[in-house]
Request: fold
Amino acid sequence: MLDIIILAAGKGTRMKSDKPKVLHTLAGKPFLQHVIDRARELKASNIYIVVGHGADQVRQCIGSADDIEYIEQTEQLGTGHAVQQVLPYLNDKAKSLILYGDVPLIATKTLESLLACADDKTLGLLTVTLDDPTGYGRIIKNGEGQVLAIVEQKDADVEQLKIQEVNTGVMAVHGQHLQQWLPKLRNDNAQGEYYLTDIIAMASKVDVEVKTAAPQKISETFGVNNRQQQAELERFYQQEFAAQLMQEGLNLMDPARFDCRGSLRFGKDCSIDVNCVLEGDIVLGDNVSIGPNCHIINATIGTNSEIKSHSIIEDAELHNDVTVGPFARLRPQTLLSAGAKVGNFVETKKAVIGKGSKVNHLSYVGDADVGENVNIGAGTITCNYDGANKFKTKIDDGVFVGSNSALVAPIHIEENATIAAGSTITQNVKAGALSVARTRQKNIDGWQRPKKK
Ligand code: UD1
Ligand code: CA
Reply:
């Protein structure tokens, strides 16, 4: 049994934002959500989130769930006061793990090793040793290395300030100990706050041993207080994610120029060139190549497909052997069947492009159902919108649409029909027919151009 308490009531003044700090994002996901995800990996029975500043916004953004309980701390009187708000709900036979909502990179392995330090006779404290410990609570030990207390920066004397081992804030404490100690906290300190850290001295006085654990990486314990720190943590995250993906066999041209704000699954021999941004859930088959500067959001891309540079793909499904771009924009509900080609400056939306069909240049295909082996010439537009309503275009197998055609929907062009270049098609076209819808060309011989007077 495990109770997890996440402190998330702070304002985050230095973010200079209307949004509560814990809702700012890392890899596209709120800091607090990262912490909740870790908590869930530990199979907590209950997750208590202490909210205060922007409590409604936090609740709304994170949402409700069976395992989550929001506890309101109306006044932020310190970390100890924050945990006191949860006291009535805590199981005194379970361990409680205290996490911070603005420390998003904390790793599950680290938390597991910390939890192993806590039982009904011990307390687990996550500490790190820093070259510059400024701002953090210092870990006070006796000659035998036993932890006696934590002294906050503002309350520390000159000798204590030299201590480099600091409190990360993350601790694992038995529920019954919190019930005993938290009501005894006092705020007679430099900040006039109820310090959670004062329970360390209480523990050492009643012979509850304080065991320290260290994170695998110091960056796991970094909190975010301003935009610079947010950007730094984003880089830590992306670097590590990139390293993991490369280990799994992904060919990343430059891991320092890669951003994945979501999940990425991929087959063998996939490569991603520089400056791509991937969001949401992305699935790549085998041998998929993504060129530089692509933005891909929630997409499945089949085996042997190639996405050329500067393409934007959102909520789309691409089957095997397709080619997209450069400079293509596939909008939501685009489906490219096997072997389809979508070339430069082509926009698609709610469009199914059949097997082997091509839309190679400068076109808009929206609300359209395109069959197999269709060729859509350069500059073709499906006119799907009359200013009020949207209509569908249906193009059957083997159709050839000449360049610079306007297909005014609703419209149905049947199998193997041909549309002459430059046509504006407003009526359905029968199978195998040629449709020409433009004024006949007139040539005037010996034309005299106007002359300047
Ligand atoms: C705290 C620790 C310090 C540690 C440091 C690590 C205490 C007294 N000090 O200091 O030893 O080195 O974290 O970063 O615990 N919060 C609430 N309600 C409150 C006060 C804070 O929810 O009333 C939340 C904040 O939103 C934040 C976290 O608790 O997420 C830490 O609070 P903060 O004020 O930043 O603590 P520090 O002074 O940094
Ligand atoms: Ca802090």
